[in-house]
Write a structure and sequence with these properties.
By secondary structure, the chain is an all-alpha fold. It is 57% helix and 3% strand. It contains seven helices and two strands. It has a two-stranded antiparallel sheet with strand order 1-2. Helix 5 crosses helix 6 and helix 5 runs parallel beside helix 7. The longest helix has 21 residues. It is elongated and about 45 Å long.
Length: 145
């Protein structure tokens, strides 16, 4: 059992201002607390992806997505991470191209980059998502290859 004095010390160290070069301790381990189907739906409604396309890029079955929808269940962290990464790509692509549909048209055209070809299927992996973000940064800065 922790002594009362130790509790004060722990509480104080968490709340104290970090000094230069030190990390601030926090009780939060993950930026995502609960991410349920309604949260996913807010993102999904912004893009014209079918349920089949979402299930494909999230690596879960359509039926599982339907169960999440019916119960408004929380997604596991791995799926939440993928959803947020895809949302990041969609936002970035819309910024670079100025329009969501121009970005999606570009993505569906299987664009070329130095590392190979990109496609809608690039959204299926973190590596593909990172390549898409890299290419969007290149396009934004006028480096098309």
């Amino acid at each position: 059992m922790t002594k009362p004095m130790e509790k004060k010390y722990i509480k104080k160290s968490i709340q104290s201002k970090p000094q230069s070069g030190t990390l601030k301790l926090s009780h939060k381990l993950s930026p995502v607390k609960d991410f349920n189907y309604k949260d996913f739906k807010k993102i999904a409604d912004k893009v014209p992806f079918t349920l089949q396309q979402w299930s494909d890029i999230l690596h879960i079955s359509e039926r599982t997505l339907q169960r999440y929808a019916k119960a408004n269940s929380n997604f596991p962290f791995t799926v939440v991470d993928r959803i947020l990464q895809i949302n990041k790509v969609i936002k970035r692509g819309t910024e670079v191209f100025g329009d969501l549909y121009k970005f999606l048209s570009w993505l569906k055209s299987d664009p070329y980059m130095l590392e190979g070809r990109l496609s809608f299927q690039s959204l299926r992996s973190i590596e593909g998502i990172n390549l898409l973000l890299t290419q969007l940064g290149r396009i934004e800065h006028g480096l098309f290859a």
